[in-house]
Amino acid sequence: MLSRVSCTVSLTTVITSTSESETIAAGREFVQTLKPGAVVALRGDLGAGKTRFVRGMAEGLGHDASLVSSPTYTLANEYDTPDAVCPLIHIDAYRLPAGDDLSSIGWDHMTDGASIIVIEWAERVESVLPPAHMNVRIEHTGDTQRLISIEATESGRTP
After folding, report:
1. What is residue 2's predicted lDDT score, i.e. its pLDDT?
2. What are phi and psi for residue 39, nearest 5 degrees?
3. Sign of dihedral through CA atoms 61, 58, 122, 153?
4. Which end of the chain has less neighbouring CB within 10 Å, N or C?
5. pTM here?
């Protein structure tokens, strides 16, 4: 008799950014690998460049990057430019009342597969992230230098 074993496969890409414009360019290139329905868990300290990375993602999809701002107080911003590839939903989980309570901001409607969703401070909502999501960590490694680690993780079951 065969037993089921839980399996996780991950691939990691590491990018060194030496400026805000390079962080934006990394986000722009990264989003080209995604399809609508993708969820991106974005992690990093305050000032690491998370919102700059999201600006690049928005630009790569055809949205006006100048409109992208951190949704710290609004909790979620949706960018839905008419000729863009797809909408981009930008969530900041830092101030969510119950930490992992995305339902209070309409999570069920956001995950309909039509948009790409990026979540800053994703560690606060870890329990509700789908098994197949992207992890992006941005770390300070100098005054202007950042290390951007992108990990594609897909969990599943194998026979």
Report:
1. 44
2. -120, 130
3. positive
4. N
5. 0.84
For the 16-158 domain, the top CATH level (class) is alpha beta
For the chain, the domains span 16-158
Using CA atoms of 115, 74, 133, 103 in order, give the dihedral in degrees to the nearest 10. -90
109 Cβ neighbours under 8 A, 6+ residues apart: none
d(CA 74, CA 141): 30
A 10 A CB-CB count for 125 gives: 19
pLDDT reported for residue 129? 87
CA atoms within 13 A on the CB side of 106: 12
CA end-to-end span of the chain? 10
Q: Which DSSP helix (H) or strand (E) runs through 158?
A: strand 146-158
